[in-house]
């Protein structure tokens, strides 16, 4: 399954989509979700999502600079990477808390629809555990390599040049305003 998830800085999962098979590109899943409309409405509040290089750079979705040429772009990429680690930690915590989601803890031998429902249920239970401050009890380190093995993502080839141009201009504005 290809799971697209949005989380907040406190690792609360605000949106999850597990309906697509693993072969579907992340950018396609994003385009076919409610996020573009939602983020379009939030744009006036200067709210952005961060995505990896597998996503197009859009006015509301900030991606890393592929080949940083200035110190400001390097600082932006560094801050972007540190901030994006929240979602990686969230995935790691979710997989550690619900071992059926982690390949070493078991496998989900069910229909894709049922697997989708299990992932959504685990995400909801994760949020409930955070809200209720349920302690995470594990004998070993919760950061046991679940997150460390992040696969590299191929850059997206976008058909939406105009939207990506606007995204590049927006990212440049963010870099100039916050990272100079």
UniProtKB/TrEMBL annotation:
Cofactor(s) annotated in UniProt: a divalent metal cation
The protein's job, in short, is: Transposase-derived protein that may have nuclease activity. Does not have transposase activity.
Q: Which family does it belong to?
A: Belongs to the HARBI1 family.
Q: Where is the composition biased (Acidic residues)?
A: 154-167
As for subcellular location, the record says:
Cytoplasm; Nucleus
Q: Which InterPro entries match?
A: HARBI1-like, HARBI1_animal, HARBI1_dom
Identify the species of origin.
Pleurodeles waltl
**What GO molecular functions are on record for this protein?**
hydrolase activity; metal ion binding; nuclease activity
Domain called DDE Tnp4: residue spans: 1-127
Gene Ontology cellular-component terms for this entry are: cytoplasm; nucleus
Question: What protein name is recorded for this chain?
Answer: Putative nuclease HARBI1
């Amino acid at each position: 399954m290809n799971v697209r998830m949005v989380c907040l800085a406190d690792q609360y999962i605000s949106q999850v989509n597990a309906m697509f098979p693993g072969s579907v590109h992340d950018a396609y899943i994003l385009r076919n979700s409610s996020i573009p409309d939602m983020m379009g409405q939030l744009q006036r509040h200067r709210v952005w999502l961060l995505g990896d290089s597998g996503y197009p750079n859009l006015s509301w979705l900030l991606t890393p600079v592929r080949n940083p040429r200035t110190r400001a772009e390097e600082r932006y990429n560094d801050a972007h990477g540190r901030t994006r680690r929240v979602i990686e930690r969230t995935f790691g915590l979710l997989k550690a808390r619900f071992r059926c989601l982690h390949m070493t803890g078991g496998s989900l031998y069910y229909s894709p629809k049922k697997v989708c429902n299990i992932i959504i249920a685990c995400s909801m239970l994760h949020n409930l555990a955070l809200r209720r401050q349920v302690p995470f009890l594990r004998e070993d380190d919760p950061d046991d390599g679940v997150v460390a093995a992040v696969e590299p993502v191929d850059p997206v080839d976008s058909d939406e040049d105009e939207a990506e141009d606007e995204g590049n201009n927006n990212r440049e504005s963010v870099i100039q305003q916050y990272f100079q």
